[in-house]
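Whether sequence alone determines local backbone shape is best considered at the level of individual chains. When preparing material for the folding task, we compiled for one chain both its residues and its backbone structure tokens. The sequence in question and its structure tokens are set out directly beneath this paragraph.
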Amino acid sequence: HMPVVCSDGGQFATVDHPDAGDTIKLTKDEQGQHHWIPMSWVTHVDEHVHVDRPGEQAMQQWSSEEPAGAEAAAMRSS
């Protein structure tokens, strides 16, 4: 699990794992909900995953629905 840092420098999420295709599954939030972000947001990775947008914008734009094919890909990797 790696912290996800937004362009304004704050941590807004934590990576659960890379998912099918080009998405990253984030750990559950305070309401017990997973979210997904596209890999295209990632600018670089060091001890954190850095994304190209401020945290508030990222949280407005992340997906709360599992991407198509993610469940099947997870089952194949098990």
About this structure: Helices lie at 55-61, 70-77. The domain at 3-77 is CATH 2.30.30 (SH3 type barrels.).
